[in-house]
Write a structure and sequence with these properties.
Two copies of one chain form a homodimer. Chain A is an alpha/beta fold. Chain A has helices at residues 10-13, 20-31, 46-59, 77-85, 93-105, 112-115, 153-171, 188-194, 196-201, 227-245, 257-267, 282-288, 306-311, 317-323, 328-342, 389-409, and strands at residues 2-8, 35-42, 62-66, 89-91, 119-121, 125-127, 136-140, 145-149, 175-183, 206-211, 216-224, 249-252, 272-276, 297-302, 346-352, 367-374, 377-384. In chain A, the strands form four sheets. A six-stranded mixed sheet of chain A has the order 2-1-3-8-7-6, sandwiched between helices. A five-stranded mixed sheet of chain A has the order 14-13-15-16-17. A four-stranded antiparallel sheet of chain A has the order 10-11-9-12, with helices on one face. In chain A, α3 packs across α4 (77-85) and α11 (257-267) packs parallel to α16. Chain A is elongated, with a radius of gyration of 26 Å. β2 of chain A pairs antiparallel with β2 (35-42) of chain B.
């Protein structure tokens, strides 16, 4: 089935905001096995909206539209869908009551304008909006099916995840499911080489190699006549891939390294302390982004200056003089000392040169040492990164989390 | 002049990556005063690329295209632009020499495939790609002008910023320029109310209110016949806005709070130390994202557990028992103590409940205390945030940086 995504909104067309709605919907459609032929953005302009929706209606089976469902004069999605399909707008008293309640409950004044949100094209199936006022809808016509969702990302996602996805899963005559494996510490081309024959031989499932931010993912997509059949195909494909490159797999889908590490620390009832230099607090920020992290993270020391390394992390002055702040010796002391100071099972340190300045011939920008101290000893790793400051900080945090992951797995 | 943006790439249409190229180009076009009517994405599919580019050619004056300029069989932009315009592909020996040198220099093997990058539509003006192999080009035809740029974001941005922008500035018969003012700590509707008459009265410049991530921006766009005339109009508009809401302006355009704070700390030769709890290292990460931050940041303590607050930040046990970790008393001690411990001019602390768990009736999720200690005393601020964990962490870091900004300004 051919789909098309249309994101309506002046703030997108002016480049004021990122169009995450398009990406989110496209990603989910791809996982469900739908083909997407075009993704378009247009402003709150009736003439251009009409042109776009009419073209889409004539070339796609399902057209997913976001935006333009609000109560203002600029919100034209209902009107334009009504116009291109010939389905006149019909008043829904039950929606108008829901709307009035929504506003009363929040002590916001209900105006006449808001009533227009209760007019929907004839035949539309309403999808309730739990997080906002604009009801979404699905309108099936002879030419195509329109799915209209709000433009506010969290409202759109709630409706897509909880209502639209089920509809799309039913509508696709075949059962198509995907699973995404997250890899770290292996480059895209090397991974491709390791599983080349698996990629080439298979027609079902199919595989897509996706480059993330310093990581690689493989999306396995299988098609079948039942959920069991499809799951079995995906499981077998995953098993084969794990045989070749399983050591590099750390998780699935949207679960990043920090969440995976957090889960393992929790399960194993281990605690961790951090000693960060060039990452500046990024590792701590990522770990604390996961709810429940207070169960395993005691805290961290961001030792940006050498004096703080000496005073708070008790790094020996002679170590700094002899080997420098960016060295395996300093990384080792930072990790072992923070572990002792905060009395945790693990101590993790990162010290390096993020750039653009600070590099030398012996230690160019991108030189980073990461150390992990535990009761079985201290491992030190050296990185030679080649990105800009932001990239080097990010990749340092990625590798740091990855080394903790590997340690906990073994 | 009417423009259209077409981003070509299978990884965008499948939702594998964010389409930042579209947003970037749209933002820059808007600042230069160009109207954008449609933004579209299509995969590396010749038929659909042809359909899209042909439609665009017939309805826009300038069509900016990204992607499809690589050396593989999937790279079809040159071929399709040649087809829709009727301008045959012409071999450029000088480009093929540049390409060969590029590969030799990096010890990568040059293959026949790469030669296709030296074929460009007749009449194309070449824009050199300093960061990659694919040359970009501008092709002026009777119907419209095509500007073809690489899909790799940093290559596209370099070419756009250093070559395309100048072309667009010349091509627009009027001089149109924009300036963006960044506001913090004032809501969009309140700001709109304060400058309502300025917004309504003006035809030139025009104003756009943009909502950022927990901040508000105003884009002032002015049109004129000379750079001086346009600058004068923008300066006057900024002056009027500053009269009404100047206390909330912290900077311009893309310069975030961390960069502004860093600049002020540098200028005033002040140093700072951080004591973070709920932000977990985010403030340190943001400050260290700015090159040169080692000039003013000594370091930080991420005191996630109460024990670390006691042991490393020397917060009094009785303070924690009596008032709790999330209190103005604890925030004060954290800021004053880290300042003393790291011997800096300023000490900044953040302690709060990011959520989703941890809230109580007296201290619900979103309760955050921020303290700033200096030689003139300690100021403590209380926030009542209402977002999710990620939002509450972000906004806490925003307010923390903002309070440092205000302190340094006065």
């Amino acid at each position: 089935m051919i789909t098309e995504i249309i994101t309506i909104g002046t703030e997108i067309i002016l480049g004021d905001i990122q169009n995450d709605n398009a990406r989110y919907i496209a990603e989910k459609l791809t996982e469900l096995g739908y083909d997407i032929h075009y993704i378009s953005t247009v402003g709150d302009n009736r003439k251009r909206m009409y042109s776009l929706l009419k073209t889409a209606m004539n070339r796609a089976d399902i057209v997913l539209v976001t935006g333009g469902l609000g109560p203002t004069d600029d919100d034209l999605t209902r009107e334009v869908i009504s116009e291109v399909t010939g389905r006149k707008l019909v008043f829904h008293p039950d929606i108008s009551i829901l709307l009035k309640n929504y506003f009363q409950h929040r002590n916001i004044q209900f105006t006449e304008n808001n009533l227009k949100q209760a007019y929907l094209p004839e035949g539309a199936v309403i999808l309730e909006n739990e997080l906002g006022t604009a009801p979404a809808f699905i309108l099936e016509t002879e030419k195509c099916t329109f799915i209209a969702m709000p433009g506010v990302p969290r409202e759109m996602r709630e409706i897509f995840d909880n209502k639209v996805k089920a509809y799309l899963m039913k509508k696709n005559t075949a059962i198509i499911r995907s699973r995404v494996l997250n890899f770290f510490s292996i480059g895209e081309s090397i991974l491709e080489t390791k599983i080349k024959d698996i990629l080439e031989r298979q027609k079902n499932p199919t595989f897509a190699l996706l480059a993330g931010t310093g990581e690689v993912k493989i999306r396995i997509t299988a098609k079948g006549t039942s959920e069991e059949e499809v799951s079995a195909l995906i499981n077998e494909a995953e098993r084969k891939i794990r045989e070749r490159a399983g050591e590099y797999i750390y998780g699935y889908s949207d679960e990043g390294l920090a969440a995976v590490v957090g889960r393992l620390l929790s399960e194993k009832k281990k605690t961790i302390a951090l000693a960060e230099s060039c990452t500046g607090g990024l590792v701590g920020h990522r770990i604390t982004a996961v709810p429940g992290s207070s169960d395993y993270l005691a805290g961290g020391i961001v030792a940006y200056s050498n004096q703080v390394k000496i005073d708070l992390l008790q790094v020996k002055e002679e170590t700094l003089l002899k080997h420098g702040a960016v060295s395996k010796e300093t990384a080792r002391e930072m990790a072992e000392n923070v572990r002792r100071i905060m009395n945790t099972d693990l101590g993790l340190s990162v010290t390096g040169i993020a750039g653009p300045g600070g590099g030398t011939k012996e230690k160019p920008v991108g030189t980073v040492y990461i150390a992990l101290s535990s009761n079985s000893g201290t491992d030190v790793h050296k990185l030679s990164l080649t990105g800009n400051r932001e990239w080097n900080k990010w990749m340092s945090s990625q590798y740091a989390l990855y080394f903790v992951f590997k340690h906990l797995k073994n």
